[in-house]
């Protein structure tokens, strides 16, 4: 089984710890992982902003970079959804515009082999207890693309519930969008921030100090709000939770103390008030 | 829609003020979350919901593919039943037809059943210009009309108002439109409904002409189908002498059997009701029963053009249930007025730029009024993939391309104001397609990380840092870590099966 890590451009540049955690986790589970350096970005920002033609060279690059691997694993629901849902569409549109079937074939081949991390763990490796140790209260935000496009269902929850020491706290309004939305965050900054503050407010109300997710782009937005409002919570990628062990525990940021639930609602309101 | 909308604020501009209106935010949050939960429960009761949804989409797609056939069949059936069919290519034509028909009756006022099509064409304003007063009889439309406001929701037009605001409107404005509000009116729902009932009753009994829309038109018998919840529609459809129905051409369904699907999916999706309270069906005219004269105005107004777009045409399946509005996180924060269209929310964001085009800054901003979270697609009872259409319309905005306008294939230029973004996207794509450049960009970013400011200048960067911190850049990228790890292990970084020489 040849497995390649598609780390995503956001993780490559901004969150290398998530990529490293994914590698550690998979190697601990006996999977030999490769990182094809020819990969860059799946093209999601371009495609979702309307630049379909700018996306095409990136589809070709991705398909070439991961040619020959049985499984392509990525710690990002939205990038997995981009490959799985939109690569076939991009190929079909190119074909419809009379530019041949090469892009469609390349996209379809990669789409069939691409897995979001929790899918790979639960469906391909058949594990839910990955031997992780994470003795902290955590709340989990299931990002929209994982929830609705990929249909990850309860996979992340099953993985988290099997983590030793972890206390999973229910996030109110979990299925609501956090407001990131790629370029939406800067094209509609007021609505995006309003959605983000509602999400962090709900997360803070759980009293947990850590907000876990499987998409660092959403977490970048939420962490940015938490830090701007000096809230006692930080974000953590699911891969880092699952990679954490007794021997090599995750280093929880100092600020992630969590609020006791009684004070949390107050803090959430206060935090919201501090912006603008 | 023929009206020009130049000068209206773009969606982000209009939404910015809405997000700061705490009363509006509270009203919308309460209303959308309540109806959202009720819809979910009503839909969950049906074991065959997924099949009903697929069947609804299939019936609509079939009808749209053979729209010409079914419309001609409808026209023949309506005519045979004693009605008269009029064809309106755009809003101006439709308004002119209705105005003329009312004038021919000699009346100067009409009562109205809530109708999206007449809102789309601005019929009330057109009638007012001709000296004809149109009275809205749906409770929420009445509130909006009395307050000289605009609807902000397809199904709940006054969703942005709470009951004390409604009480104030009734108390202050009812007298100018007819029977005044009772003395000492309270803001309890029962009292407000009674005030509206008394106010409207004299209009129902006096009116000689009514204007309605239609939720469905059955081609095989020429039957109009109107769904409502208050009984006001039944009054309008039965009491007056002349009835004029204005409906979009996509509202036709082939047979009565097709209604079986939609009469299940529409009430549950819109009001979370198992069965619609008042479903009125009427076919032409019948001696001694209902209106003596019936006119049907079939409205195109951009629908044929929308039908020509392979991705966008699915928007014409819409049955106006508004489930997508009630689950939309953007609608919830921005409110309906920010869309500046009869059709707000996710469906409006794909319908308006197709019906009106993307020529104005407002209409070009609507496809971006979404985080693409997909909640709208999930609840849509006719499976319109709204995110897919949004992305396709974004492409139309930034890249231009072939569209159909007024029946003619034409190539449009990209919308104004996207040149800098286009250049950035192109440069970004170039860097991402050249790993040496991408690696150098990463190294430059990580090595200079201590120098980066907390808040950035520029429109896009400032839009991020206005409410959020920037992520802290790590000392080295993932790919640098991997390369060093491979070097230490004596391996060859990135020499996987797919790595090709010359790409590094």
TrEMBL record, chain A:
Signal sequence, renumbered to the chain: none
InterPro entries noted in UniProt: Cys_rich_dom
Ranges for domain Cysteine-rich: 3-83, 138-223
Official protein name in the record: (Fe-S)-binding protein
Automatic annotation (TrEMBL), chain B:
Ranges of biased composition (kind: Gly residues): 491-504
All copies of domain LUD, residue ranges: 73-286
Superkingdom field: Bacteria
InterPro entries: 4Fe4S_Fe-S-bd, 4Fe4S_Fe_S_CS, FTHF_cligase-like_sf, Helical_ferredxn, LUD_dom, LutB/LldF, LutB_C, NagB/RpiA_transferase-like
Compositional bias (Basic and acidic residues): 477-488
Keyword 4Fe-4S annotated: yes
Pfam families attached to this UniProt entry: Fer4_8, LUD_dom, LutB_C
Domain 4Fe-4S ferredoxin-type: 315-384
Residues annotated as domain Lactate utilization protein B C-terminal: 393-486
Positions of the UniProt region annotated as Disordered: 454-504
Record keywords, A-Z: 4Fe-4S, Electron transport, Iron, Iron-sulfur, Metal-binding, Repeat, Transport
KW Electron transport (keyword) present: yes
The protein's name: Lactate utilization protein
């Amino acid at each position: 089984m040849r497995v390649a890590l598609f780390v995503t451009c956001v993780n490559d540049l901004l969150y290398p710890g998530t990529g490293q955690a994914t590698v550690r986790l998979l190697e601990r589970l006996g999977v030999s992982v490769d990182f094809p350096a020819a990969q860059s970005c799946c093209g999601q920002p371009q495609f979702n902003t309307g630049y379909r033609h700018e996306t095409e060279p990136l589809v070709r690059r991705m398909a070439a970079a991961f040619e020959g691997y049985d499984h392509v694993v990525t710690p990002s629901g939205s990038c997995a959804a981009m490959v799985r849902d939109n690569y076939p569409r991009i190929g079909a549109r190119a074909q419809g515009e009379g530019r041949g079937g090469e892009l469609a074939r390349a996209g379809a081949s990669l789409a069939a082999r691409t897995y979001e991390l929790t899918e790979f763990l639960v469906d391909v490796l058949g594990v839910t207890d990955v031997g992780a140790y994470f003795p902290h209260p955590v709340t989990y935000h299931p990002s929209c693309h994982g929830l609705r496009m990929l249909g990850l269902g309860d996979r992340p929850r099953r993985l988290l519930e099997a983590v030793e020491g972890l206390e999973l706290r229910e996030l109110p309004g979990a299925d609501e969008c956090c407001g990131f939305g790629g370029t939406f965050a800067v094209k509609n900054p007021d609505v995006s921030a309003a959605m983000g503050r509602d999400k962090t407010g709900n997360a803070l109300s759980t009293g947990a100090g850590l907000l876990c997710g499987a998409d660092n782009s959403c977490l970048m937005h939420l962490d940015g709000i938490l830090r701007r409002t000096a809230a006692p919570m930080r974000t953590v990628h699911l891969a880092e939770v699952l990679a954490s062990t007794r021997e090599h525990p995750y280093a929880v940021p100092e600020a992630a103390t969590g609020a006791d639930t009684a004070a949390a609602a107050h803090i959430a309101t206060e935090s919201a008030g501090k912006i603008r | 829609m023929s009206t020009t909308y130049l000068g209206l604020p773009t969606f982000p501009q209009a939404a910015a003020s809405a997000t700061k209106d705490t009363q509006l935010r509270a009203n919308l949050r309460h209303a959308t979350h309540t109806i959202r939960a009720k819809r979910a429960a009503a839909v969950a009761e049906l074991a065959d919901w997924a099949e009903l949804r697929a069947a609804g989409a299939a019936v609509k797609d079939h009808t749209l593919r053979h729209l010409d056939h079914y419309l001609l069949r409808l026209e023949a059936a309506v005519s045979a039943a004693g009605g008269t069919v009029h064809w309106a290519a755009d809003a101006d034509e439709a308004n002119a037809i209705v105005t003329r028909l009312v004038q021919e009756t000699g009346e100067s006022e009409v009562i109205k059943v809530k109708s999206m099509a007449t809102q789309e064409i601005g019929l009330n304003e057109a009638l007012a210009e001709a000296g004809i007063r149109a009275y809205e009889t749906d409770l929420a439309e009445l509130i909006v009309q009395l307050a000289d406001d605009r609807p902000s929701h397809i199904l709940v037009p006054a969703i942005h108002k709470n009951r004390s605001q409604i009480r104030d409107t009734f108390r202050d404005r009812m007298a100018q439109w007819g029977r005044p509000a009772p003395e000492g009116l309270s803001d309890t729902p029962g009292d407000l409904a009674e005030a509206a009932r008394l106010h409207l009753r004299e209009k129902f009994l006096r009116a000689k002409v009514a204007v309605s829309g239609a939720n469905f038109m059955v081609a095989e018998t020429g039957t109009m189908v109107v769904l409502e919840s208050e009984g006001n529609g039944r009054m309008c459809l039965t009491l007056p002498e002349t009835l004029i129905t204005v409906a979009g051409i996509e509202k036709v369904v082939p047979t009565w059997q097709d209604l079986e699907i939609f009469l299940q999916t529409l009430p549950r999706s819109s009001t979370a009701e198992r069965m619609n309270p008042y479903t009125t069906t009427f076919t032409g005219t019948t001696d001694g029963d209902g209106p003596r004269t019936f006119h049907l105005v079939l409205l195109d107004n951009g629908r044929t053009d929308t039908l020509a777009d392979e991705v966008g045409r699915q928007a014409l399946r819409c049955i106006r249930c508004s489930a997508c509005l009630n689950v939309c996180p953007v609608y919830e924060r921005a409110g309906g007025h920010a869309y500046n269209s009869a059709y707000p929310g996710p469906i409006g964001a794909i319908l308006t730029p197709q019906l009106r085009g993307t020529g104005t800054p407002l209409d070009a901003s609507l496809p971006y009024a979404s985080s693409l979270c997909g909640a709208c697609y999930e609840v849509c009872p006719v499976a319109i993939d709204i995110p897919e259409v949004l992305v396709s319309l974004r492409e139309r905005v930034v890249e231009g391309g072939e569209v159909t306008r007024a029946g003619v294939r034409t190539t449009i230029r990209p919308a104004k104001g996207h040149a800098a973004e286009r250049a950035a996207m192109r440069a970004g794509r170039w860097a991402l397609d050249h790993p040496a450049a991408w690696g150098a960009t990463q190294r430059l970013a990580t090595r200079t990380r201590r120098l980066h400011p907390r808040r950035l200048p520029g429109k896009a960067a400032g839009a991020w840092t206005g409410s959020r911190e920037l992520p802290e850049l790590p000392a080295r990228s993932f790919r640098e870590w991997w390369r060093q790890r491979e070097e230490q292990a004596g391996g060859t970084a990135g020499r996987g099966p797919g790595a090709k020489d010359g790409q590094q």
